[in-house]
From TrEMBL:
Identification of the protein by name: YjbQ family protein
Alphabetized Pfam families for the sequence: YjbQ
Record InterPro entries: UPF0047_YjbQ-like, YjbQ-like_sf
Entries under Gene3D superfamilies matching the protein: YjbQ-like
Family statement: Belongs to the UPF0047 family.
Length: 140
């Protein structure tokens, strides 16, 4: 079994849902040495998250952002964690709902995603800054 682990830093993104599939693949040049395996992508932050969804129509990402802002609104009187700004506690909740990692099969040196699938980095803060990912690929 082969195990490869790389860390990468993403550029700062504005608040929203952003496809990062190409950046992840570029940060893992050894991916082509794995015939059959799995890639685990982990984000080292509590106010941003990862998920897999539609990679073709940008309106999907806009709708995700709008829905999450309705589902987890800012400036609620019941939030006690407020000293980092109105977007911080909702960002933690959104991150917990979506999760901090995704797994993608590797087949013949490539991510085995569906035709319309891409890896999303979900930035839940207005100014979240750069984000750090740990990429762990393992397989034969």
């Amino acid at each position: 079994m082969k195990v490869i682990q790389n860390e990468m830093q993403l550029q700062p993104f504005k608040r929203g849902f952003h496809i990062i599939t190409n950046e992840v693949v570029a940060a893992l040049p050894e991916l082509n040495t794995i015939t059959t395996g799995m890639l685990h992508v982990f984000i080292k932050h509590t106010s941003a998250s990862l998920t897999i969804s539609e990679n073709a129509d940008p309106s999907v990402r806009v709708d995700f952002e709008r829905h999450f802002n309705v589902m987890v609104p800012e400036n609620q009187s019941y939030y006690t964690h407020t000293y980092e700004g109105a977007d911080d506690m909702p960002a933690h909740i959104k991150s917990a709902l979506l999760g901090s990692s995704v797994h993608i099969p590797i087949t013949n040196g490539q991510l085995n995603l569906g035709t319309w699938q891409g890896i999303y980095m979900c930035e839940h803060r207005d100014y979240g800054g750069s984000r750090h990912l740990v990429l762990t690929a393992f397989g034969m």
